[in-house]
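Dear Dr. V.,

Thank you for agreeing to look over these. As mentioned in my earlier message, I'm a first-year student in the group and I'm still getting used to reading structure tokens, so any feedback on how I've presented them would be very welcome. I ran two proteins. I've put each sequence directly above its structure. The first is here:
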Amino acid sequence: MNSEKLSKRLETVVSYIPKDSTIADIGSDHAYLPCYAIQRGIAASAIAGEVVKGPFESAVKQVKLNALENRVDVRLGDGLDVLRPGEVDCITIAGMGGPLIASILEKGKAKVENARLILQPNISAVSIREWLMDNGWSLLREEILEEDGKIYEVLVAEKGDPKAGYSSGNLEAEILMGPLLSTERSAPFRKKWTQEMTQWKVILKNMEQAEETPALEERRNDLLVKIKLVEEVLNR
């Protein structure tokens, strides 16, 4: 992967960037995504944010290599601290865990109010959906894809009705699995949740050998609820 050829998951993220927007890519690593978006004529300008000095320096080198110093500003800082309020109209955060992405959004609320969010969690997309729901964001689009044996989700959101896109069905299941993804039920979606259920059932089996405690009972009940939710969606 480089700034001329992205991975499938990052190409999916880029596909939701509005034309001629000013973007911020948080946790940009080598700045491949912002360089690619500029070179393809998708974004007008970009900010690449990195909290770790090594990847920050790699991003600076990549921007210079592509002669994009006047259009891609590489900044060192924690999450959305690299931005000023209203500075960008699209923010991408990819390749992190859902809870970490949600915490970055929570800490930087004032920086994201008028921006489109394009988020690609490696795990626990439910954490992001919960944050969006609690903070008045509308989930516009969801996509799930498989690449190199791993399954990824991409969520696109803008400020608006947090219940838009959700049906009048089981809200708990839709927040867990994705309201739009639950409707489409694609092959990667089915594979992901079949694997999750298999793991949960193994955990439940192992729990039979453990000493009974209130915490164990709570964990068991949580897994049983999740399994039931997933089975209902997959068998719909």
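The second protein is here, in the same arrangement:
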Amino acid sequence: MKIQFDCRHRIRAGTEETGDGGWEVCLDPPYNLKPGKCLVYSFGISYKWSFDDYMDQEKKCEVHAFDPSIGQDDFNRSANIHFHNLGLGGKNWTNAKKWKMYTLGSIVRLLGHKDRIIDFLKIDIEKSEWSSLEAMYLEGVLVQVKQLGIEFHDVPSNRKRVSIINRLYELGFRIYYTKQNFFQRRRSRLTRRTVYGCMESHFVNINFYKKSEKS
């Protein structure tokens, strides 16, 4: 995945680049986070709170964290971080593991954020990103997302998944940073080279940039 947007002011929110759990955030206007007014959705915690804590402590954002896999009931980690025992998926249902799964549009409505901008949407949900993105396209909910950080698992090996990523471009999302996940690497049996199973990609929605130029 190639860089498609030049972000001049980028920070690492959470664990450093060689660690697991941190994410890049673009702070170029109009993507800069306004303390006390920014809204963050964080899907996939797995007990790694460095990103969420950074967005709370350093940027004073309202953070909603989600992960049904850690066996934790809803709770408030801090005054700004709200944990929900829910998962992100391609439909609203309860799976075989008894996890409650909802589409992004359903969660936005559930939390009363239908008319709010999501400043940063982080998605690290172990392959469920593919069906979740398809649902987002149908719901039209990505129009209210300024930045998107997503970990793609099994980086596109078929046309359907390539088309899912291409749709992001069509909707105005441009990659400003991408890296392979160092913790998801193995040696190829065929070539004996190191291969990576995950790609972390960070996008800005240029529709917000266009709006800022007009105002």
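From my reading of the second output: The chain has five helices and 15 strands. Helices lie at 50-57, 104-110, 129-139, 159-170, 206-214. Does that match how you would interpret it?

Kind regards,
E.
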